[in-house]
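MOLECULE: protein
FOLLOWS: sequence and fold
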Amino acid sequence: SLPYMHILNGNVYVRFQGDTFHRTEREFTAGNVNQELEKLEKYINTVENSHSPGTKSKMAIGEFLLSGMCSPFDHMWMDLRKSKFNRVAEGPQMTSYAGTSGNGKSYASRYLLAMLTALDLEPLTSKAFTETRVCGAAKTGNIMPLVFDDLKRERIREWEKWGKFYWDKGHAYQEPFAQLLVTANDPIDTQGPLGRRVREIWMDATFDNNGENTEIVEQCLEQASQIFLYFSGILLDKYFSNEAPYNHNDPLKGVEE
């Protein structure tokens, strides 16, 4: 089942299987932050073991993880947008992390979920990716991002039909709404309805399927960075103090700035 994530009294909480986890920490030192950043860097650097090492591949996985960390707060960005431009219905970009088989997309999804929740979770499957299920789940008050792994081609084509209206018609002002992130082998049609509404991140790196690579990434997953604890507090404080960064076209650019 999907964890239930919500914001209460300026803090992020995750409820799962009867337990509640506090996912915001405002008391921290530079050492705490550096320790978690080092874990994150270690995972991103596993790209060096691929057939396409280098900055481009590291930037791809880094952008995917950053979009995932921002995603629980995308409904707040949308509220900010609507407060500025009441008639604008287009929401924050959904994310598609795409590339050929064997490029670590499934592990990236698991790593993102571990960062957000500190739990060992599996991403959602292509079978569950239907308009009814996705749009229904998004409006339950749960801001836990909907992370789908290995989206099949037919599901992408279906998404191209209803995805344009995911935020436009699904989100209500000042109401929680879950963001959508997927991984897939196939690209979206950038000239189609999803073109402007999806941030497509292309990952060129591929990995040999061997024990050494698996062991390295499994170790990273077991010790996944908990930088989200500190990130959530900083970003929430900015939103609640009306100092949240706003970039009209992409919430990520505001955060990066």
About this structure: Residues 80 and 242 are 9 Å apart (CA to CA). The longest strand covers residues 11-16. The chain has a mean pLDDT of 94. The first helix runs from residue 30 to 44.
